[in-house]
Design brief:
Length: 562
Amino acid sequence: MSSATQPFRVSLYKALLFGHVAQGLKAGTVYLEQSYKYRALEGYLLEREQWQTRRTHYVHLADLERLADPHNMLQQLEVDLHQQYVTTNARLEARSNPFVQSKSDETLLVRTPPQRRDHTETLATFFPGRQYIALTEILATVNQLTHFLAEFTHGQHHPTVARPPVQTFLAGLLGVGCGIGIRKLARIFRHVQETQVEHAVNWYFTPTNLQAANDRIPQMIDRLPLPTIYRRSVDSLQTSSDGQKFEIPAESLNANYSSKYFGKGQGVSVYSFMDERHLLFYSTVIRAAERESAYVLEGLLHNNVVHSEVHSTDTHGYSELVFGVMHLLGFTYAPRIKHFQRQRLYAFKGLRRHDAYPSFLVKPSGTINVPLILAQWDAILRLLVSLKLKVTTPSALFRRLNSYSSQYGLYRALKAFGQILKSLFLLRYLDDVELRQRITQQLNKVEQSHRFARALSVGHPRELLSVDKEGQEIEEGCRRLIKNAVTCWNYVYLAKRLLGTADPTHQHLLVQAIRHGSPISWQHINLLGEYDFSDKRLEDSVGILPATWLHAKASKLAELVG
């Protein structure tokens, strides 16, 4: 039969159709009006008509009047970038930075030495030694100090429903946050009932309630003088964020496969935010393969207790887009970028024509597209206002913007602006060893929190038990609340120790140990529960028969097993 008479087989073209639809969704040429992830970009921003008619009002409401005219800001950035090129290269030529060396192929070898610390007592020695503190006691004590359980309100706000006792809420926190599970915990703990704990978790444990409960602890600690020992400046607060991988035991829409982390299984990444005082003020659960840079602004804009001036991430949280938007929103972005010497540097046209350019050891290889930035400034300002007024979340907007074609004007303009800030930061990062040390130190605090999360998850150390996103957020909220409670208890205990001694030498040793240590310490905490060796608990409870009976039935057993 000739090809002209063969029937058209639709099934053969479905794969091509689906591929083109998927590509269109990612590029923005196809969109779903009712979708959360695949709307048109306009759907994530302030309505265009409202923006055009009330632009000045919205800019004032978002406190972004300083950005109304971009020309002065770009001129100042041009001066700053030019001066940083000159300063960095002059110091390299004079060999003023002993931790940067020029190799024979003119590439740079950069070292970041660990920060010098004097010999001090380990902070762990000042916590209770042989007296292990029960986790339940710590949660109850911190609740008395902060009343964080008051934030657990009924899901339907039903005034006639009897509120569960404190013990039930604490049992739910441990069952969910430590990965033990509600049913197992209710059966191995005393003085709690399984049905009561399940009811409390189902009706009172929500991501919103848990975020509000977590906020109570930093608000209380913020009034204490001791945590300020970790701040480098009273006028500036440095924060950081990083992801931690967890496996999911079943199929989940919020997870994906990764042989590197989960073998043949699926998993997610818990993306957490921490400040200089070791307080976890925000977290979210994302798919393990998602780029973390889309979520960097999430914790900075959508928390009510910590205002960050300087924020650090690792390479996974970095992008030129984030550099630009962070600066415009008033944050200083200071990531730790792996192999940053290979990053491309940019400059304004004026610097490329500068007399010193040929002699620079570190020189720009690209030019900032200033006309594009100016042409798209109104769209950039509309995006910033939408973020500040919380019309949309940064992650939803960034995911959509990142998936658009590189030819999309707003995306290209934001990248071009971000290239200015990225180049300025990399030149400072190369030249300032103390800046590199501060960034590393702050990121190490998040890593220590990750280790605590592993130790705390005694039930399933590398898993989240929930398969849906809301359940995963609840698990993470419970775990974060427990970690914050431990940090709070440690602060209060250390303050008690410090105030309880009149010996100046002992006070000095303790202050130095606090300064060089971390309040995220759990060696003195009983995370495993208690074991009962009473005669009653040593008795057989399930009817195991004696060995003589087993020997007598050996032939029968052999017959059964084949």
